[in-house]
Write a structure and sequence with these properties.
53% helix, binds zinc ion, 5-stranded parallel beta sheet, Zinc Finger, Delta Prime, domain 3, 3 domains, alpha/beta
């Protein structure tokens, strides 16, 4: 899968291809941006191109032995460090100094069979301070024929001295159309099952992240939108009892309240856009457009903005471990007074 196989991310791809064509590949890169938007696949394409035995025009062939080995994760000159307890959905572990020491030993040798050794540090922000300092020493005296690629969500969580030694390349969230293309490709490969309508909804609502787009719970929350729209429509001080009952029942269910509030914020954002920019505004919940337009026409713009802000406050409260039922009740008071 040459560079074009990493769908979306044309800017990072062009920067890297230009560097390859002009023989100006940096010795260390920092790929930063949200998770699951193509940072690691791009790092692997760069590693493949540097080691490809039939590279063409700053790209790899995707079929030679070296490309195949990197695709299969068995190339002896490609090292990938990840947090110890990482899984595809959680990255809660840390990268420890022992892993860095091990890497340093391996990098001391010449490439076994490739042209260039590549060390990819995934979730680099999970390096603890000892590991970060150890890595900084490696970067200060880099071994020859070695490329380092750090992958991080937030570069501010890395040592500034590390960041300053890397060429930073930002990866933006994927557009809905790129998300759709990736979901269709994953479906064609048998990695994912969904009909076209479902793919459309997922692409629009994933926030540009493939892990979110493929999350089974994404559609569960989606099915509760009608219920949330009713609450927005019925917000009035004379109907507080309805909201209190709803808060109590939600607090008792095993529902992800934070996800419900994110959904509420998305709906309010859409309604506000329809109210201020007109019926054809670009919205996330395009499948509910007629309902949302009708609601937008009944609500005042400043009430919608107040409700949106109150939802964001409730989300922050929940992040700070406030009681879910109390946070929701506070939210409804704001809604009804808006
Ligand atoms: Zn190749």
């Amino acid at each position: 899968m040459p560079f074009e196989g990493v769908l979306g991310q044309s800017r990072p791809r062009n920067i890297l291809k230009n560097a390859l064509l002009n023989n100006k590949v940096a010795h260390a890169y920092l790929f930063f941006g949200e998770t699951s938007v193509g940072r690691k696949p791009m790092a692997l394409e760069l590693a493949k191109t540097l080691n490809c035995t039939a590279s063409i025009q700053g790209d790899n062939c995707g079929i030679c032995l070296s490309c195949n080995k990197i695709d299969s994760g068995i190339h002896p000159d490609i090292y990938i460090l990840e947090p110890e307890t990482s899984t595809s959905s959680t990255r809660l572990g840390t990268i420890k100094i022992e892993a860095l020491r091990e890497l340093q030993k391996k990098l001391a040798y010449l490439p076994y069979e490739g042209k260039c050794k590549v060390a990819i540090i995934d979730s680099a922000e999970t390096m603890n301070s000892q590991a970060s300092n150890s890595f900084l020493k490696i970067l200060e005296e880099p071994p020859p024929n070695t490329l380092f690629i750090l992958i991080a969500s937030n570069p501010h969580q890395l040592l500034p001295t590390l960041v300053s030694r890397c060429q930073a390349i930002r990866f933006m969230p994927l557009s809905p159309s790129d998300t759709r293309r990736i979901l269709i490709r994953n479906r064609d490969k048998g990695e994912f099952e969904a009909n076209d309508d479902e793919i459309e909804i997922r692409a629009m609502r994933a926030g540009g992240r493939i892990d979110q787009a493929m999350d089974p719970s994404l559609l569960e929350i989606c099915e509760r939108r009608e219920e949330l729209i009713e609450l927005i429509a019925g917000a009035h001080l004379s109907r507080m009892d309805v909201f209190i009952r709803w808060s109590k029942s939600v607090a008792k269910q095993s529902v992800d309240v934070q996800a419900l509030l994110s959904e509420m914020a998305r709906l309010l954002r859409d309604i506000t856009l329809l109210r201020s920019c007109g019926r054809s505004a670009t919205i996330t919940n395009a499948d509910l457009r007629p309902q949302l337009i009708s609601l937008a026409e009944k609500k005042k713009l400043n009430s919608l903005v107040k409700m949106f802000k109150a939802t964001l406050v409730a989300q922050k409260d929940l992040d700070a471990n406030y009681n879910a039922q109390l946070s929701l009740e506070n939210l409804w008071i704001e809604f009804c007074a808006a």
